[in-house]
Amino acid sequence: MSPRNSALEASRTRRRIVDRGLTLASVEGLEGLTIGRLATEMGMSKAGVLGHFGTKQGLQLAVVDAAAEMFAREVPQRVRNVPAGLAHLTALCEAWISYLERALLPGGCFFTAAAAEFDGRDGPVRDAVAGLDALWRRDLSIHIRRAVAAGDLPADTDPDQLVYELFGIMLALNHSLQLHRDGRAPERARYAVRRRLGSS
Length: 200
Prior knowledge:
The protein is mainly alpha-helical. It is built from 9 helices and no strands. It has helices at 3-28, 35-42, 46-53, 56-74, 86-101, 110-118, 124-149, 159-180, 185-197. The longest helix has 26 residues, at 3-28. The termini are far apart.
């Protein structure tokens, strides 16, 4: 096998490990994600898995990155062509609800679970989760400010407060879907968003 093909195969194997790790971590948490467990799942040796990440923490961080890629693909990137302003903000919220409703991960929202798992800890994994959360809040705030500037939302709208409330709706949605298996929860979330954004 040529060096180029070898590197390509290594990249594909790493991707498969991370994808499997993401699925497992969504249900069992990042701390439940072990090199041994993944080696068994993938039919590989522990050394073979470890060679791709160096440490368990390296594996955890790779899984966090993969979760961020999935979220970006399924939420902001799905609505990138929607015009700025309230239309874009509304489409973002709908994509966010749809992402949770479609249960792309068996454990629901990866970042909700990871935040609960790591919020009281220190270290690189917590920092990565907190940093991605902050970036998403910042992006939502930017879209809210654009909607205010366009006159789509009241001039006295507090972007930080609205971000807080939208997060609350999505956290309640994830909770209702995962803990209570409430099939009505997505429509409740849509109604709450419409009311909060003044579109109902």
